[in-house]
Amino acid sequence: MSGHSKWHNIQGRKNAQDAKRGKIFQKISRELFMAAKAGGPDPSGNPGLRLMIDKARAANMPKDVMNRAIKKAEDGDKTSYDEIMYEGYGPNGIGILVSALTDNKNRTNSDVRVAITRHGGTMAGAGAVSFMFDRKGKIVISREDLDMDEDDMLEAALEAGAEDLQTDDDEFTILTDAKEFAQVRDALTEAGFKFESADLAMIPQNTIPVPAEKEETFQNLLDALDALDDVTDVYTSAEWADED
Question: Which residues sit opposite 238 in a β-bridge?
Answer without folding.
Answer: 208
